[in-house]
Amino acid sequence: MPLFSKQPPEQYTIGFDFAGKLPTGTSLASGSVAAVDAAGADVSATILGSTTAGISGTKGTVLVKAGTAGVRYKITFLMTLSNGDKLEEDVSMDVVQI
């Protein structure tokens, strides 16, 4: 699972590239994103700018906008492909105060 770090006040768009997972002739059609904390509580509304994934070519994208220093979050992209198949990938986010 890919890991990245951010400081609590930072806000920026992250993405996961599905290029190596897309079957020939398919593309990303839509997607959703969710975030949970280390205890498994849904924190999507406070951590993410939206629970709808953006699409940029072969990447699912989302704005990360918050987080508590010292906490690791799991961000899950669930993408629907043009043929109706679904792909899921997780990304870890460590929030650190520098």
Question: Key terms for this structure?
Answer:
98 residues; mainly beta; Immunoglobulin-like; three-stranded antiparallel beta sheet
User: What would you call the structural class?
Assistant: mainly beta
Quick one: how many beta strands? 7
Radius of gyration from CA coordinates: 14 Å
Number of helices: 1
Strand order of the largest sheet: 1-7-6-3
CATH architecture: Sandwich
Please bin the fraction of helical residues.
Answer: under 10%
Q: CATH top level?
A: Mainly Beta
Are there runs of 5+ residues with pLDDT below 50, and where?
Answer: none
Strand and helix map with partners:
Layout: E1 3-6, E2 12-17, E3 28-36, H1 44-47, E4 54-56, E5 59-64, E6 72-81, E7 86-95
Parallel strand pairs: 1-7
Antiparallel strand pairs: 2-5, 3-6, 4-5, 6-7
Could you please describe the fold and organization of this structure?
- The chain has 98 residues and is mostly beta strands.
- The protein has one domain: Immunoglobulin-like (Sandwich).
- 4% of the residues lie in helices and 49% in strands.
- It contains one helix and seven strands, in the order E-E-E-H-E-E-E-E.
- Strands 1-7-6-3 form a four-stranded mixed sheet. A three-stranded antiparallel sheet has the order 2-5-4, with no helix packed on it.
- The radius of gyration is 14 Å and the shape is elongated.
- The model has no long low-confidence stretch (mean pLDDT 96).
